Amino acid sequence: MKKTWNEYLWIASLTYMILGFFNILFAWLGLLCFFFPLGIAIVKGTKGYCNHYCGRSQLFSLLGNRLGLSRKKDTPRWMKSKAFRYGFLVFFFAMFFLMLWNTWLVFAGAQNLKQVVTLLWTFKLPWHWAYRGTLFHPGVAQFAFGFYSVMLTSTVLGLITMALFRPRSWCVYCPMGTMTQLICKAKCPQKPRRHVP
Amino acid sequence: MTAITKRQRRAEVDRAVCVACGCCLKVCPLSAIEVYRGVYARVDQRRCVGCGMCAGECPAGVISVWEVQA
């Protein structure tokens, strides 16, 4: 079967992660991965983004299936539970707003620009080579560092669960996926019933 | 002459716990799965041959293959 253009979006995801090593301002492009899924869910009421255009899931699928980097074991029950999925969404949001708050502090002049990428919300990695100053306000760069931290953290988490469990285990607890599904559920007139075989 | 009972296999999705990621539709060789309104995946029972590709791919492990009487 002939491949369609959207099946190559993993190249875009990979390029995004690489560009962040050279110039952190490219991190702003990552907002597309936020607005497209939400837009599709709100306007069309589908998870069209997850289903057809998510480059990250394609990347995990490629690495896990094609390159055999996944153990392909069952995802643990707790990880796919609603409590964990919604809990992770809330946690992810809290961390996201903390990042926005830090960006605001730099914009307001209350804090200096921190040229670090925070991995897994804890480890501060030096990343000063990716920013040499621009005409923009330092706050623009602060957001880029923060947003790239979010993207790198989720990629690393996704890679870990890809290796340990199924290639696309990330999809189970992906905050964007959970959020878009919630929007779709709210828009869907018919509630799914639990299947009893 | 003994009657031959035909047994067939079909995939079934536990809709309440499906995350609607769409992994299954990418691997289905017969395009028998669709994601309904971004809420859950559903299998077209007339097209499904029960190959189990979707069940093997599903990261949430919500797809199972059952034997059905033809």
Notable features of this structure?
heterodimer, A: mainly alpha, two-stranded antiparallel ribbon, 58% helix, B: 70 residues, alpha+beta, Alpha-Beta Plaits
Write up what this structure looks like.
The complex is a heterodimer of chains A (197) and B (70). Chain A has one domain (5-187). Chain A is 58% helix and 4% strand. Chain A has helices at 9-22, 32-44, 48-53, 55-66, 82-107, 138-164, 170-173, 175-187, and strands at 116-119, 123-126. Chain A has a two-stranded antiparallel ribbon. In chain A, α2 (32-44) runs parallel beside α8. Chain A is globular, with a radius of gyration of 18 Å. Chain B is α+β, with helices and mostly antiparallel strands and 70 residues long. The mean pLDDT of chain B is 90. Chain B is elongated, with a radius of gyration of 13 Å. Chain B has a single domain (14-69), classed as Alpha-Beta Plaits.
Helix and strand topology:
The complex is a heterodimer of chains A (197) and B (70).
Chain A: H1 9-22, H2 32-44, H3 48-53, H4 55-66, H5 82-107, E1 116-119, E2 123-126, H6 138-164, H7 170-173, H8 175-187
Antiparallel strand pairs in A: 1-2
Helix pairs in contact in A: 1-4, 2-8, 4-6, 5-6, 5-8
Chain B: E1 7-13, H1 23-27, E2 33-36, E3 40-43, H2 53-57, E4 63-69
Antiparallel strand pairs in B: 1-4, 2-3
